[in-house]
């Protein structure tokens, strides 16, 4: 009988030891893969975790846009993961282990409409500003300046404010594509103010005050989104009077604009 009791106690101790030494499984995110266009609480967590370790410096809003995409790619590159900009199970597991997430802090501030951040190594209480509705940090790549952002936003607003969001990003992308093309000036200001290049410059609409949507479209283009597919021209077929522009190889139509090479 004593041997049986000792055996039971030994087994119990071994099981207890196994539980004590096994890593605690952290339930994070949802089971779905997270990619561009996704929205929801798990995107909020993704943004907050990426911000905690310094990869994401934008607004935590639960919308997987290009800022989140490039932040995630940077994380994947640094941590030796497949670089695809998608938060699958492997990426989520690695991110969970590398970061921390204070869900209550984040959700409470979102509900209150506070301006806040979620950086690690800094007291969260010092990262909150009452009201303001968001985060003023933007995903501005180091090769571009605030002046570039403002000038492009003016151009996009003047040229395409009535177009769908994708069309506004495409107009911004055309400007950037011209900067990289040998046939155009090599600066953003040079491209925008090249004589005869943009209607908004000719009629003065370049100086209208752009809205936040135009700025967001420029930021998406600066961060690599090119809906125009490397186009260097676009035109409105309803109003275009140049026969030459119709001769350019057409790529696609977005809204009222036809984009071409």
Automatic annotation (TrEMBL):
Residues 1-20 form the signal peptide. Pfam families: Hydrolase_2, PG_binding_1. Residues 162-260 form the Cell wall hydrolase SleB domain. Residues 39-95 form the Peptidoglycan binding-like domain. Keywords: Cell wall biogenesis/degradation, Germination, Hydrolase, Signal, Sporulation. The keyword Cell wall biogenesis/degradation applies. The keyword ATP-binding does not apply. GO terms for molecular function: hydrolase activity. It comes from the Bacteria. NCBIfam families: spore_SleB. This is Spore cortex-lytic enzyme. The lineage of its organism: Bacteria, Bacillati, Bacillota, Bacilli, Bacillales. The gene is sleB.
